[in-house]
Amino acid sequence: MIPLKDTIPSEKYPIVTILLIAINVSIFFYEINLGPHLPELVKFAGVVPARFFDSRLYAFRGSPERYFPIFTSLFLHGGWVHLLGNMLYLWVFADNIEDRLGHFKFPVFYLLCGFGASLAHIFANPTSSVPSIGASGAIAGILGAYFILYPKSRVITLVPIFFFIQIVELPAFLFLGVWFLMQFFNGVLSLGLGTAPTAGIAWWAHIGGFLSGIFLILLLKGKKHRGRY
Fold first, then answer.
1. Angle, alpha carbons 151-133-147 (nearest 5°)
2. How far apart are CA 52 and CA 46, in angstroms?
3. Which of 135, 71, 117, 68 minimizes the C-alpha distance to 216?
4. Which domain holds residue 25?
5. CATH code (residue 165)
6. Which of 51, 74, 125, 195 is the most buried (most CB within 10 A)?
7. Which residues are 132's β-sheet partners?
8. d(CA 110, CA 98)
9. Alpha carbon 98 to chain centroid distance?
């Protein structure tokens, strides 16, 4: 399922959302220009779970090199499909969360969701030496917040059915509920196989981000807003 837009217009100009998209796209072009040096950047700025459990890799416990990747990894992407998919979800769902939180709280919320996503990925794959990058964990937090705040909103969705493409309106709670169940199913499957992220996807980062978004939006705004749309 591919979201195209939702049915709730922005009340304010989503300046932070647009800025986040611009930053991610700009950094991706920087990645492209690195050429053969790109793997070095990904290894340094990506989240490598094994690093957090191997003290021999760091001279000092508080070394920035150990913790910065939790945030720097949110702005790196592994290809055009990875980037465009994440930016589409960010564009469709983030403006309403920015509306509700405001321009100053929203980027803090975004980074905290990314932090929760990274922690979930690290603890789900403690021995993995594969760098994890991408904004999807933080964006999953936005989806979690949207699920709480706008469950009755409609999401215009492109649904491929075999060789046909259908465009349908789905309730947000259904679209996001199915999305989360897919992440959870694949996350549990990856644990059962004893593997690192299956097919290059950090399922537990998505799960951790989504749950972080729910927790944070309830903390910031409370349950009374549920069902407004």
1. 5
2. 12
3. 117
4. 2-225
5. 1.20.1540.10
6. 74
7. 47
8. 10
9. 15
